[in-house]
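For this section, I looked closely at a protein sequence along with its fold in C-alpha cell form, which I now present.
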Amino acid sequence: MTILLIEDEPLVAKNLVRLVQLLEPGAVVLGPLGSISDVLTFMRSHPQPDLVVSDIQLSDGVSFDIFRQAELHCPVIFTTAYDEYAIRAFKLNSIDYLLKPIDPDELKAAFTKYHQWRGTSAAPDFREQLRDLLLDFTEQGPGKKYKRRFTGHYLRQIVPVPQEQVACFTRDEVIYLYTADGHKLITDYSTLDELEALTDPAVFFRANRQFLLHLDAIAGYQSHYSGKLLVMLKKPNDVEVTISKEKAPMFREWFEQG
C-alpha cells in the first residue's frame, strides 16, 4: 500500500509522516509534497498511489487544482485547519475530511474505512466522487445564494430570525440559535456543518466544533499565550469562544476584512 502525503507546513508534515507510519506500519509513505506544482510533477513520473492524504490550502493554491489537472483513481483524505470549505459535500461524497490538528483516532477511522472498501465490490467510484466534489466546491463560489432567514422555537412558536439578528449558532446535543438581543432558541437543524453550508462565510465564522459566529455579534478577542484566541460576544455576554492556534490567522483576517 502506498500513501501520498500532500502538506506544505514542515512541522505538520513531519508529524503527519510519523502518525501515518504508526497507524499504517506496512505502508510506503510518499512525500510529503508541499505545492501543486510538485504534486503534478510527481504524478507525471510515478504510478498513482493507493491513497492520498492532502491538505487543502497549499503554498501555491488549493489542492483541488491538482485533481482538476490530474485525474485521480484513488480515494483522498482531505485535511485542513479551516472548516469554511464545503464540509457537507465531503460527507456526501464519502471522502474523509479531517480538521487540524489531526486526531489520531479520526485518521485511524479513515484508514479503517479505506481498508473496508479496498478490493470489494462495494468500493465507490472515486473518480466520479472526486468530480462531484470539485463541482460542489465550485458551486460555493460568488454566485451561491446563502440563507438569509432562519427559524427557531420560542414560547411554543416557530419564529423567523433574519440573518442580521443572529448572534451565533451553538451545538449542545441540539443546535441552538442565540439572537442579537440574547434569546436562546432551539432549531431543527441537525448539525453545524449543515448550517455552515447555508451561511455566508463573509458574515459567519466557524470558530470550532461548537460555535458558528456572526461577525456583528463579536465584541472583541484576546490573544492567549498558547497562540489561541478568546472571542467575546456581545450577546450572550457570558459566553467565551476559543479559537485554535491553527485557525487564529484566518479568524483575524476574516474579522479585519469584515
Q: What stands out?
A: Residues 2-138 form a domain with the Rossmann fold fold (CATH 3.40.50.2300). The CA atoms of residues 35 and 41 lie 10 Å apart. DSSP finds eight helices and 17 strands in the chain.
